[in-house]
User: Which sequence fits this backbone?
């Protein structure tokens, strides 16, 4: 395949390699420092020589690389373990308020982000707390030991080449990569490319060392290699593979021929490239100096002729078949084929659809499996598909490894009998633990609840959740009286912990910081309003035991704030820091608010309420909702600290405009007798007891972590058998 520039070949090389097609870039490889294997070793060498330059991203890449051998899940678990250890160590210290409040100030003891803790663990594995599990700390210890060994080699007078060899030889990666390269398939080709990159790296380091002499340092090595804009001559590079697709520029193809040639990217504005081609000092104009003057610069007509000649070189490289491709995009600003395509004298064929299947072995196996199982096809066609599958499954390479393992029925999903676990999710007789969020999740999609709560396959906490925890903590301090209801004071406390929150970009951190201040302003405004109620507690954890359809259930959670009105009724407050409000049709049966009301009704907070309930009886004529235990429910409210009360009517605020009052959504108190929350709780218990975790399509599917593996999705997840 030919293209006008090497840049147009890079995406083709990646696509072909991913599809399992052998590729030969014919010298158009990216610079050595951009090849993954070489870039990894260069990063490790730089960090070993200069530990202070290691960033959190460097530590993460080293741990997830073959040097560390960690997985994403292991890294997340390590981050959580380090944060828990840091939080425990900070909590054991002196309270930030000098001990006057009797409790440590939670905001000042917030541990650093997990990314920073992981970086510190890699830099010095000796600082890893003893209570962090060994299997989680092992990758950090392994990488830290490798960096120390390379650093010691440099300290003993070794050269960058010696330190690089220490990293490569001591890591065990060399043996693993050699074994993988001796195999077959795409993994073998990838390992072979990595080996070639490593050999080229050592060759380049040796050449640079010979050129620089005794003053050769790791810093100069890294600087030189990263300054390269194209691949240098690779004396150890692989030879041309006869079974591979060659990718090269037209300039490199001069004098070569192939039976089949594809020329890609013949787009208007790309080919011909009519931009002036000149050097900074105009040295190319000296061609006419011997004839008495400078050569005049090229005109657009001259450049068009040069581009036409280059295109002629490209299309004459094919002996039997030539394919020229271009994109004809819709719209006025879309890409258009070059005028050079029209000069071929052949009517272009429009390809408006993608192929029915990818032209790969995996795509072939998928098509054959589909034909073999399709009852609407003829018996002869189905038998032929089965024979082809059997032939592919028997193909092996020289070490007798299968070349097409996906063709063997043992590797197919969904053909075996469904199995049942001998261990139930919740054994009979043991309590089923539920909360308001669990009830909502089970109602929306039982499969997602199981994967997140039982399989623990969900994503780690996000910065949005950290935002909410900080705002909730400050609201709790004001409600409990540990902090004054003063925006300036809360803003200062917010600054003390904001630097510990990890954001992707500075502008994002600044944006969220301003939103947090607005949320605190709305809280203080709401807190000061006269509602005829007094707060009696905040961040109150509860746990109550129930019996639902014969199964013990433990309902637990944490209520942001509880208030009593003049009639002695209990009002439940839940602060929200998200950007969206609850739809009006869903508010009446909001699971979290309903769970809190149910817990109060069932006596989960009786002891707390007894200490705060006023002794006066309700006013005459009042008929509040009450529970059998005498607790009077006044309802529950969602207080949206990130939304103005009139946001839906007025739209977004103008820059600099102060925030308005918080939006409040109220849920009516639970009536006497069995209610909707009792029915929801019963359905949740039945789902867990019978283990019927079926997927449910709904609005949450657009943001679900497991969408691509969900059998209810007919596009991404339809290959999964329910």
Assistant:
């Amino acid at each position: 395949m030919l293209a006008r520039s090497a840049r147009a070949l890079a995406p083709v090389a990646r696509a072909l390699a991913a599809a399992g097609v052998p590729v030969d870039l014919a010298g158009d490889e990216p610079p050595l420092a951009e090849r993954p294997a070489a870039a990894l070793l260069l990063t490790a060498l730089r960090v070993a020589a200069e530990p202070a330059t290691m960033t959190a991203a460097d530590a993460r890449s080293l741990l997830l690389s073959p040097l560390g051998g960690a997985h994403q899940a292991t890294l997340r678990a390590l981050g959580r373990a380090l944060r828990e250890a840091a939080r425990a160590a900070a909590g054991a210290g002196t309270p930030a308020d000098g001990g006057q409040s009797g409790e440590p100030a939670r905001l000042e003891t917030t541990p650093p982000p997990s990314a920073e803790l992981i970086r510190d663990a890699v830099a010095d594995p000796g600082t890893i707390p003893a209570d962090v599990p060994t299997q989680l700390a092992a990758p950090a210890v392994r990488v830290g030991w490798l960096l120390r060994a390379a650093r010691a080699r440099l300290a003993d007078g070794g050269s960058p080449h010696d330190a690089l060899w220490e990293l490569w030889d001591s890591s065990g990666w060399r043996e693993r990569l050699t074994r993988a390269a001796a195999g077959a398939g795409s993994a073998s080709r990838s390992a072979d490319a990595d080996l070639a990159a490593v050999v080229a790296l050592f060759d380049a380091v040796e050449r640079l060392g010979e050129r620089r002499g005794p003053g050769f340092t790791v810093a100069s090595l890294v600087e030189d290699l990263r300054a390269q804009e194209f691949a240098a001559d690779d004396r150890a590079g692989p030879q041309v593979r006869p079974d591979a697709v060659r990718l090269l520029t037209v300039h490199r193809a001069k004098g070569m021929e192939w039976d089949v040639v594809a020329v890609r990217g013949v787009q208007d504005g790309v080919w011909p490239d009519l931009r002036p081609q000149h050097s900074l000092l105009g040295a190319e104009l000296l061609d006419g100096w011997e004839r008495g003057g400078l050569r005049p610069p090229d005109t657009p007509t001259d450049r068009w002729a040069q581009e036409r000649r280059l295109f002629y070189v490209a299309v004459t490289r094919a002996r039997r078949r030539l394919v020229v491709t271009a994109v004809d995009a819709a719209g006025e600003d879309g890409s258009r084929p070059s005028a050079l395509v029209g000069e071929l004298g052949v009517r272009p064929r429009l390809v408006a659809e993608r192929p029915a299947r990818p032209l790969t072995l995996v795509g072939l196996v998928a098509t054959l499996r589909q034909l073999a199982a399709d009852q609407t096809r003829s018996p002869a066609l189905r038998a032929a598909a089965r024979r082809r599958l059997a032939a592919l499954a028997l193909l092996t390479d020289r070490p007798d490894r299968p070349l097409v393992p996906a063709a063997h029925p043992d590797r197919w999903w969904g053909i075996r009998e469904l199995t049942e676990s001998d261990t139930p999710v919740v054994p009979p007789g043991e309590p089923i633990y539920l909360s308001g969020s669990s009830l909502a999740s089970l109602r929306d999609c039982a499969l997602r609840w199981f994967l997140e709560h039982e399989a623990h396959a969900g994503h780690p906490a996000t910065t949005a959740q950290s935002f909410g925890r900080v705002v909730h903590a400050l609201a709790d301090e004001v409600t409990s009286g540990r902090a004054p209801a003063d925006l300036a004071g809360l803003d200062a406390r917010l600054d003390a912990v904001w630097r510990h929150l990890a954001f992707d970009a500075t502008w994002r951190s600044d944006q969220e910081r301003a939103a947090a201040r607005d949320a605190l302003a709305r809280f203080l405004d709401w807190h000061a309003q006269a509602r005829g109620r007094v707060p009696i507690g905040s961040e109150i954890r509860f746990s109550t035991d129930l019996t639902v359809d014969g199964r013990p259930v433990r309902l637990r959670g944490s209520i942001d704030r509880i208030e009593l009105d003049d009639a002695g009724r209990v009002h439940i407050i839940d602060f929200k820091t998200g950007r969206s409000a609850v739809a009006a049709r869903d508010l009446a049966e909001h699971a979290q608010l309903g769970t809190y009301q149910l817990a109060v009704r069932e006596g989960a907070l009786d002891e707390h309420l007894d200490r705060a309930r006023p002794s006066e009886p309700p006013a005459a004529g009042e008929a509040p909702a009450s529970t059998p235990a005498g607790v009077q429910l006044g309802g529950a409210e969602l207080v949206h600290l990130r939304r103005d009360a009139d946001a839906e009517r007025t739209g977004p605020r103008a820059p600099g405009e102060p925030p308005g009052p918080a939006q409040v959504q109220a849920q009516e108190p639970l009536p006497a007798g069995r209610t909707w929350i009792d029915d929801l709780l019963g359905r949740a218990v039945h789902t867990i007891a019978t283990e019927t975790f079926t997927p449910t399509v709904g609005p949450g599917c657009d943001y679900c972590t497991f969408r691509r593996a969900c059998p209810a999705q007919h596009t991404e997840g339809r290959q999964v058998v329910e």
The two ends are 43 Å apart (CA to CA). The mean pLDDT is 82. DSSP finds 25 helices and 13 strands in the chain. The first strand starts at residue 2 and ends at 3.
